[in-house]
Design brief:
With about 1900 residues, the protein is α+β, with helices and mostly antiparallel strands. The chain is built from 59 helices and 47 strands. It has a 7-stranded antiparallel β-sheet with strand order 26-25-24-23-29-28-27, covered by helices on one side. A hairpin with a 3-residue loop joins strand 28 and strand 29. The longest helix is centred in the middle third of the chain and has 30 residues.
Length: about 1900
Amino acid sequence: MARLADYFVLVAFGPGPRAGSGEGHGQILQRFPEKDWEDNPFPQGIELFCQPSGWQLCPERNPPTFFIAVLTDINSERHYCACLTFWEPVEPSQAPACSGEEEEEAGERPSPSALVPPTQLFAPKTLVLVSRLDHAEVFRNSLGLIYTIHVEGLSVSLENVIGNLLTCTIPITGGSQPDSVEEGARTISLGAGDRQVIQTPLTDSLPVSCCSVALLFRQLGITNVLALFCAALTEHKILFLSRSYQRLTDACRGLLALLFPLRYSFTYVPILPAQLLEVLSTPTPFIIGVNSLFQAETQELLDVIIADLDGGTVTVPECVHIPPLPEPLHSQTHSALCMVLDPELELADLAFPPPSTSTSSLKMQDKELRAVFLRLFAQLLQGYRWCLHIVRIHPEPVIRFHKAAFLGQRGLVEDDFLLKVLEGMAFAGFVSERGVPYRTTDLFDELVANEVKRMRADENQPHRVLRHVKELAEQLYKNENPYPAVTMHKVQKPGESSHLRRAPPRPFPRLDESTVQWIIDQATAKLQGAPPAVRAEKKATVPSGPPMAAIVERNGAVHANSARRLEVVRNCISYVFEGKMLEAKKLLPAVLRALKGRAARRCLTRELHLHVQQNRAVLDHQQFDFVVRMMNCCLQDCTALDEHGIAAALLPLVTAFCRKLSPGVTQFAYSCVQEHVVWSTPQFWEAMFYGDVQTHIRALYLEPAEEDDGPSAKGEAGPTEPGAPGKEEEEEEEEEEERSALDVASEQRRLWPTLSRDKQQELVQKEESTVFSQAIHYANRMSYLLLPLDSSKSRLLRERAGLGDLESVSNSLVTNSMAGSVAESYDTESGFEDAETSDVAGTVVRFINRFVDKVCTESGVTSDHLKGLHVMVPDIVQMHIETLEAVHRESKRLPPIQKPKLLRPSLLPGEECVLDGLRVYLLPDGREEGSGGSVGGPALLPAEGAVFLTTYRVIFTGMPTDPLVGEQVVVRSFPVASLTKEKRINIQDQYLQDGLQLRSCTFQLLKMAFDEEVGSESAEVFRKHLHKLRYPPDIKGTFAFTAGSIYTAGRQPRTAKEKSPSLRTLSRNLVKNAKKTIGRQYVTRKKYNPPSWEQRGHPVPPEDQEDEISVSEELEPSTLTPASALKPSDRLTMNSLVERACCRDYQRLGLGTLSSSLSRAKSEPFRVTPVNRMYAICRSYPGLLIVPQSIQDNTLQRISRCYRQNRFPVVCWRSSRSKAVLLRSGGLHGKGVVGLFKAQNAPSPGQSQADSSSLEQEKYLQAVVSSMPRHADAASGRNTLSGFSSAHMASHAPSPRARVTTLSNPTTASVTRRTAPRGKWGSIRAGGRSSASSLAVDVGSRLAGKDLLGPPQPNGAPSEPGFLRPQRAALYIIGDKAQLKGVRPDPLQQWELVPIEVFEVRQVKASFKKLLKACVPGCPAEEPNSYLRSLEESEWLSQIHKLLQVSVLVVELLDSGSSVLVSLEDGWDITTQVVSLVQLLSDPYYRTLEGFRLLVEKEWLSFGHRFTHRGAHTLAGQSSGFAPIFLQFLDCVHQVHSQFPMEFEFSQFYLKFLSYHHVSHRFRTFLLDSDYERIELGLLYEEKGERKGQQACKSVWEYVERLSKKTPVFYNYMYAPEDTEVLRPYSNVSNLKVWDFYTRETLAEGPPYDWELVQGPPEPVEEERPDGGAPQSRRRVVWPCYDSRLRAQPDAISRLLEELQRLETELGRPSERWKDTWDRVKAAAQRSEARQDGRSTPSSLLMSSVSHHRRSLGVYLQEGPVGSTLSLSLDSDQSSSSTPSSGRQAARRSTSTLYSQFQTAESENRSYEGTLYKKGAFMKPWKARWFVLDKTKHQLRYYDHQVDTEYKGVIDLAEVESVTPGTPTMGAPKTVDEKAFFDVKTTRRVYNFCAQDVHLAQQWVDRLQSCLSDA
C-alpha cells in the first residue's frame, strides 16, 4: 500500500519588499505533517509554484483555480503539487496605502477587470497537496471538498478531513491482479459524507494520460505533434506556451506519454514560475511550460522549439534541424493518426456516405493515439533484443547495445533520426531498464516480440491497422480504468458563484496542528503492526521475438547479389584452396566486383571460415596473396562502425591465415589488412569485445557437455551476438536448438536468490575472470591490427577527434609478392604525422589502455586486475614489434611477383624519352566507355602498365587488369605542350600509392596511380620534368625546335662566317632596324626623300624590276628609314615579304601587287603599302598592308595611334561581286573616332595633335568609303541597319538621326537580304526547332524606322523579305558595345556603328575549362544527365552561336554591298575569328585545302594572333593559362562543315588535325605571336633556304601536303562546290553539334593525329590454309572507344582506292596517285551524265548537282501543303511533286550507270529456274517458291516470286551430299504425284521439295546431279 498524499500545505500572500506595490511573495502558513517523512522529504520552493505568475493582490475576488505543478527532486522523483487557489479580502493591516502612481502601475498589470477604488483588495491563498502519485481527479475533489467545507461553513472538522487525507493509503500500482474489486479499486472517504473511488493502474510502467494526448493533438494538429515528438526524442529544447496552467501540465504529460517506452530524462517543468525564467537559457534539453504572459521573454531564445497551445503553432528556429521519422514509418504513422482523429476523412469523397459513424470518446481517442505511437516504437525497435550484449549476469546484469548491428540490419546507417535516438539518454535508460532478461513484462514487450509480423502484414491495409490500434487502445484504457463500473464519486461542491457573495466569509482558519498530527500518528502506529506491503511482482523471461530479417539494401546498390555472384565467390575460394591458381585468377576480377555487395562479403567470410582448422590455416604465397586481396576488398567498403559485421567476421580470420616465410618466421594475414578505418574505431572494438564476452559468459553457464566445445569453438568464431550478420551457418543451426545468451541470463537471474552466499561469490568471480581474460585477448588482437609491419618508417596515425589516437594505420611494405602492395607515401594534407617523430608503440599502447579502461570499468573488473592489465599492455606491444621485425626482414627477401612486361611506345623521329616507364595503373575516369559501365563492352580500364615522358608526349601503354578482356594494348597519350592541369589524387586502395591526374587541352585525361615500386621521389621527379617540358624558359625549348637535338636553353646558336648576307643575318638586321625605328617613332620627325625600292619578285616582268618608285609626290614627314635605295639585304626582305601568304591573296583578290602599288596606278582604289616592312608602325601586323589609294604612308603612323596596339584599319578581303571590302583593326582608343563622335562642340582652331590624328582617322574612313564603287543611291546615308535588335536599346531609343545599330547577342536576332538569297542556309539535318526568340520585331522595327520584318524562320535563319533598306551606309563599323557607349553620329552619315556585346578572353577560358570537365570528367557522374547539364553550364555552344551570328551579319552586309570594319578588343582574338569566318562563308576559295591554309596564314599568323601567349607556351605565360581562341574558330568551321558537307574540299579530320597540332608543338607553324617575332627568331624564311634533304617537317602545311599525296585522309569526297556560293549557317544552339574531337578517343593507338604512329602493320590477306580447310575469316570485333573506326571500317571510296593500289602493286605497275585516280573517275562520271542528259552539268560522284538551295548529305526538305517532311532522295522513285528537280533524276541515272558496269548479264547467272514447293523448317508448312540454279556461283537460290530481285534464301551446292527421291509428308500438296517429291541432303539439314509433276521433278534432279558432278 502507498500513501495517497504526503503533505498538505497552506500558502498565503506575504507583502513584498516594496510596500504598497501590490506585489508580494508566498508564505507557508501551515504544513502537515510538520516533520518530514523519512522516505520522502518535503519539497523546497513550493510557494513559487503555487502562483507561477507571481503573488499579487487583486481588486476583485476571482473564482477559485486549480492546477497541478510537477516538481522533480534530486533523485529524479516527481512530486505532483495540486494547487487550489482562492481569494480572500485583505485585512486592513495588510492593505497597502496606494498613492496615485501605484494605482497607475496596478492598472498596467494584467487583472481580470478594471481597477476599483482601493477600498477593498483581495489576496490569493493556496491549498497545496503534495503527492508522489498522479491522481489528478482525486486531488481536485479532495481540495475542493476542503474549500467547500470552509466556504459553505459545513459542520465538519477540517482537521479530521486533512488528517484522513494524509493517512489514506491505496494499493500499489502494478501489483498482483487484485482478488476483489475492493483491493484494486479503493474507495475512500475523508469523513465529510463524501465517497471517492481510486483505481490504481494495472501496470506501473505504462503512463497514465487521461485525455492529455487527445487534447494535445486537438490543440496543435498531427504534423506539429509529430515534430515535437521527434524533437523530444532527438534531445531538443521544447517550450510550451498557454494562458492556462492546467493546459500546460496536460500538454507536457501528453508528450511524455507518447515517448513510452522511452523515459524522458532531462529537465521537465510543466509550469515554470516567473522568477525562474532564466532556466530557459540552460544548455541542456528540456520540456518546460510557461504562461503566455511571458511570451516576450522567450523571443531571444535561439535554439528552443516553441509550441503555442492557444494559437496551435509550433515554431522551429532556423538553426534547429529536427530529423524526421524514417520512411515509410513516417507516412504510415501520419495516415494512422488521420484515421483516428478524422474518421470522416475516408468517407468525405463518397457519393453515398454511410450514416455518421460514432466517434470515440475523448478518453478512448487518447488511448487510440497512444496506440499508434506504441506501434511505431514496436516497428522502430523490432528485434532490438537480438542486438543486446549481456556482459555480466551476477551480481547485477550489465547489458550493452550493439548499435551498429541494429542500424545495419535495417539499412538505416545514414538515418539521422534513428542515429540520434540510439545515442540519446532516453535510449540508454531504455536499454538498462528493459534489457534486463528477467523482469516484469508489459504491453510493449509483448507487442515488440509477437506482433511485428502482423504489423508488417497490415502495412497496406488501413482497416486492419485501425483494428489493431483499437485493440491496443482497449488494453491501454483498461490499464487506467480497470473497473469502469465502480467509478461513482460523491463529493460536495460549493454553490454557484459562492466566491462573489457580498457577505465576506471568514478567512481560512488556522488549523490545530496537534489534532492533525494525532490522527497521523494513530494511522502510522496501525501500519507498523501490519505486515510490510511488498509489491508482488510477476517476473518472467522477457520474450525476444523473431530476429530482424536482413532488410533488402535500401540504397538500391547496383550490385544485386544474385545467387550467381555468390557462386562465383565460392568457386574462386575453392580454386584458391585447391591450388588452381589460373582459374582463380580468371575469376578474381568478377569476385572483386561482386564483393561490393553485402551478401557476397558474408559469403566470403563463411567460406573462409570453413578452411580454418584449430584457429590456424597455413597457405602458400599465391594463396596468401589471393586471400589477402579478397579480404582487403571486403574491408575497403566497411564503414568505421562495421554495421554489417564484416570486419567482425574477418577479425578471427586475419589471425588464422598465415604463410611461412622462413624457418620460425610466419606472416599472418593481419599484417596485410591494416589499412582500414574500422580497426582504429574504438566503438568497433567495444562491440566485438562485448560480443565475445557474452559468448564466453553463456558458455560458462551451459551444461558441461556443451561447455567443452563452447569457448574453444566459439571464441574465435567471429561475431558472437545472437543473430549477428556474418555468422557461420552451423552456429545458426545450433542457436535454434540451444538457448540464447539472454535466455541463459534470465534463468540465472531467476535462480540467483536461491543460491548460497558462497555459490554466489564463486559465480561472480568466474564471470569477472572471464571478462579479464578476454581483455588480455583483445589487447593482443588490437596490437596485431594497429602495429604496422615496418614500425621503423611507418606513416602512422591520423589523429581524429573521438576516435582515440588513430584512424588509419599503414604498413609500409607488406610483402614483395603481393599483387599490389600498400602504398608508401606521406599525405600531409590528411594530417599524417612525420615518420621520424611518431612514436608508434606509445600511441598504440595509449589507444589500447583507453579501451581497456572503458570496457573493464563497465564490466566490473576489479581494480587489481585492471592495474595488472596496464602493466601487461606495453609488454604485449613491445613483444609484437619484435616479432614483426623478423617478418618484415623476411618478407623483403621474397621473390618479386611477376609483373606484366612494360610495352615501349613507338616514337616519332626526333622524339626522345626523358623518363623511362614508371609503373602505374591507368584508372577509369568519368567516361564510361573505357570501363565497361552502363554502355557495356569490355572493361579496358583500369589498365596496368607504365607512363613514359618524352620530349613531345606523355604516353601510357599497358594492358587491362581484367584478365577476361584479353591481350589488348591500351594507349593514352597527349602532347606535353597541351597539358592544362595537373593535380594529385588520393587513391582509396591500400595497394596503390596516391597518383596524378593530368588533363590536356586535346581532351585527354590520364588518371594514374603509381605502383608501390615507384617511390614518391620518382613520382616527384616525373612531375618536375613534366613541368619543365610543359613550360620551357623560352620558345626555343619547345619540341618543334629541340626535336632531334639536345637543346639547352642557355646555349647560343652557332653562327658560321657568311660571305653573302643569309636569311638569318637579314632577320637580325631587320629586327635591329625595327627596334631603332620603334624606339624613336614618337620623337624624331625629319624631312627626307622617300626611299626607292627595287623589286625582285619572280612573277614580275623584268622591265618593272628597274623602276625607281617614289612613295609620294610632295615631301611629308614620315618614319621610314632615310635611304635613297635599299641595301641588298633589304631587297631580299622585300622578296620574302612578297612571297608571304598575304601578298599572294591580295593579288588573287585584285587588291594590287607591291609593284603596281608602288607605281601608284590612280585607277586602283586600294594599294599595297610597304610602310610596315620594318614592323615599325605595328609589330603585330604583316610587312605589307592594303590601304586606300589616297592615303599617304606618312599619315598611317598618326592614324595607328587611335587604335589599340596600333592596329589601324586595313583591308583584308574584297567581294568579287559587290566590291565591298572587309577591314580589320584593333578597338578604338578613347581619342579615336569614338572620341571624335563624343565631342559635342566643333573643334577649336588651335587643334592638338590628338585631334589632328582623329581627323586623319576620319579622313581615312572617308577614303575607304570613297574607294568603293558608287553602287548605292546618292542618299546612301539616310538609312539604318534593320533586323538586329537589342533589349538594351529599348529603354533609350536613339534619336532619328542617330546612326547606331545594335546587335545584342542575348537575342538570337538575324538578318536577311533585300533580294531572294543567292547563298544558302545550313542543312536541316539537325532538325532544328523554331526559336521563340528569333527576332525581337518591335525593337528591330523601331531601329529600322518604318521597315517591317517578315516572320522569323526556324533555326535562327532570318526572314526572307527585305533585309536592308534601299539606302544603306557605305561602311559599317562593328565595335564593342562598351566602347561605343554614348556615341554621336557621323556628321555625313556615311558610316554607321554597330555596337555588339562580345565575350572576353577570360570568359572563353572559363567556358573551355567547364567544357573540358564536361567532355572528359575526372570521375563518374552521380546523376544521369550530368553531361548535358555541364555542357550547357559551360556556355561553349553559346559562344560558338554568338560568333556564327556576328559572322553571318557581316556576310549579309558585305553581300549587300556595304563594307564592314571589324574593330573588336585588341584586334587579334575575336576580330580574327570573325574576319576569318566571314571570308570562309563568303569566298569558296577559302573552303579548299590551299585556300584554308592561306586564310590561316594570312589572318591568324601574319595578322598576329598571339599563339604563344594564348597557348601559355613558355614559363612566362604559365599564370595566364590556355585560351582556346583558334580552337573555337575551328569548332565554328566544323559547325559550318556539318551543315554544308559538299562545300568543303577538306574533311572534318583536317580540322581535328589542326586542332590537335596547333597546341602540340610538333611544328613551328603555330609558335610565337607575330611575323615580327618569327623573323627575330629566324623562323620565317629559313624554310625556303634550308629545305635540303629529307628531314622532319617543321611546317604543318608541308606535312599536310606530303601526307595528302599519300592518302586521302584530309580530302572530302563529297566536295561539289557551287561557284560564288555564300554560306549562311544556322547558328541557334539547337542546330549546333558537340564536336566529336572533344569526346571520341581511340585506346588502341592513342590520338590518331600523328600519322606515322598510328599506321599499324597491314592486315594479312586471306589465304587458303595448308590443310585445305576454308580460309580463315577476316572478321574482327570493333570496339567503339578502343579501335579507330575510320581505319577499321573505312568509307567505300577509300576502300576502293586502297584496293586499287594493292592490285596495281601486285601486278607490278607503278601505282597512280589517289588524287589522279579520283579525278579521272569523277570526270568519267560527269561525261556519262552529260551524255544522258544531253548537256553538261558539274557533278559529284556521290550526288549530282541539286538545284535545291539547301544541299546536304542526301536529305531534302520537301515543303508540302501540310508541313515539312524529310525524305532521303537517293533511291526513292516517288519524288515529291513540290520539289521537281532534273538534277535529282540525273543523280539517280548516274548512280545506276555507275553500278551497271559491275553487273553481269542475267543469263549467265541463271542456269535453270522454275517453281518448286519447299517444306519449311520444323513445324512450318509447304510453300511454293521460285528457284534459280546458278552454276556460276554454285548455288540454288529461292525467291518469293519470279519478279523479285532479293532472294529469300540460298543453298550452297558445296554442302550438298546427295539428291534422292522423297515421300510426301504432312501438309504436302494433295494433287501431286508421289514421284514428284525429292529430297536434297546437305551437311546441315535435309530439304524436302516437290515439283508440279514427275517430269519437272526428274529435270530438277538431273540438273542438280550434273551440277554436283561438275564440281
